[in-house]
Amino acid sequence: MILSHVRKTAVELNLKENQVSSVVELLEGGSTIPFIARYRKEVTNSLDEVVITSIRDRVKQLDELDKRRAVILESIEKQGKLTLELKDKINKAETITELEDLYLPYKPKRRTRGMIAKEKGLEPLAEAIFKQDMAFEVAKEALKYIDAEKEIGTVELVLAGARDIIAEWVNEHAEARARIRELYLSKGTFHSKVIKGKEAEGVKFQDYFDWKEPVAQAPSHRVLAARRGEKESFLLLRVLAPEDEAHRILENIFVINNRSLSSTEVRLAVEEGYKRLMSPSIENEIRLITKEKADDDAIKTFQVNLRQLLMAAPLGPKVVMGIDPGLRTGCKVSILNAQGKFLEYKAVYLTQGKHQEIEAEETLRHLYKKHNVEAIAIGNGTASRETEAFIRALKLPEAKIVMVNESGASYYSASDVARREFPDLDITVRGAISIGRRLQDPLAELVKSDPKNIGIGQYQHDVDQTKLQTALDDITMSCVNNVGVDINTASRELLMYVSGLGPALALAIVEYRNAKGPFTSREAILEVPRFSVKAFEQAAGFLRVMNGDDPLDASAVHPESYGVVKEFAKDAQCSVMDLMRNDKFRSRIDLKKYVTERVGLPTLKDILSELAKPGRDPRAQFEFVSFKDGVNAIEDLAVDMILPGVVTNITDFGAFVDIGVHQDGLIHISEMSDRFVKHPSDVLKLQQKVSARVKEVDLKRKRIALSLKTK
To answer: What is the span of the domain harbouring residue 652?
Structure first.
């Protein structure tokens, strides 16, 4: 732990130093963010996961900054050019950009025009010109450097070489780069143009065929879209700054005396340095800066969406028929028991002749009755509405029919995870199983798929993949631990996100469970090979043992606090089970009596709250929704239709809504409310039910514009 990093982080995040140092100490000791937030509130003064994550990320940034600082200092020192003044500037630099600006003059680089000029002996002349003394006679002094053998046979060639040297000094000047960088950020403009001849092929980028927008105002989704168009060779993308203003800034820094002859040469060198060196370099930097910002914005949107999707209301332990719709290839129908175990599979054909329709009807009725199906999950892909209409026409008794977002189901079906689970089943059958399980428990099923493939977020394959993966892993771990995991039924993929576990221990738990049978207590987890005391500390509170030896094992009360609960029960003159079942006994508890140096009121309040609803699921209750009858395809839509729908994705520019026609409609941010909306997530949530008006239908581009405004 570096104390200066702790102090700086505390100031930036408006926290106390001891809060930051406690979090850093816990993280360095192997504690996870969910564990710290839930079970170490006394240590951190009740910091939540968001703040703890911010501390982790900022301290990591500062560590990386120090590592880069050390590399730079070592490099310059080896060159014998590290002065006390330069060392002080490097040590005081607070950003990577500042460090790199200071390092630029000393950074090893390819042979440049300035280097070549120095090799020809022109550096003394460049230094003399750069001083801009009134008495210095430029042309006369330049004559002294003429040397045909060095290919500088004229005064103009000599002066051009001197200007090359000065141009590099201009480009490598830290203050000048900072000022020009700020100009690009404040007054620069994105400008994209279509590559000639690519208009028809790149129609999806037509909004960017001649796009101009200030760097300071361009939203992340447009920056990423333009960059993708450039990457796919449909667009030319530039970042341009006002050139006259850039020249004025640089001349104010470098041109000392307008009346001297040397100043004319310096002015020419400044213009050359800006055009040939600094402008392209800073443009690349701005592209990186704006890309990082766009990435951060996109990742934040992705995180919000993923949390909402993973925390979507589960149907719960019900027998489900999962259907992956299909016309030509038929519908794949799977039956799952209440715990999600695969029972049976059939394929039915709904549109290939009367005989097969009758056969499909008989098969579906038989399966429904045989397994006492409680709900039918239909994937919302191709032929979903036709399949739904067919099922509804069967009038199955008490049938609950739900359209399930199947985005990413095909990725799961072909994954190693699916092959391990169902090695003998066809890919399409695995898809039907996944659709059914998504209805039963979205969290348990979706952790098996890469979040980038489940149809949420924007430009997820264009952003920094390492940063995205870290952010999504954080959200997944947060959701899994927030809900809690039944250790006797959870998949390896679900267990690996439990605090303190990971892939290896998750696999060890499953293998032990398969060999020895279900766990009867939390303590029994320690018998799993390689399961350490530290792993138990981190994981135990988030693992549930249902109907085990100790009722507390099914709750979020950590085993380290079982003694406190027993004291509660003893003082209330009842059993632990009585405390969990009867508010009368819990009301007798005066928490202040149980405060110790290790256990404070925050933890005691959490324990009492958990005893009231042990193992409670924080997710909402499931609600059924139906689409409008008779609207099955985009061709069925008409302007001003009011349609029920479900929000499937939220981006910075709007929200996509499933209205039952296979193609999601878009509610642009400007159409979300009669009042100003800063971000779509302020108004809508993933899986939210809405009633939207059709604003426009573009059959050619298969685009549907929706509105929530009152017209």
So the answer is: 634-707
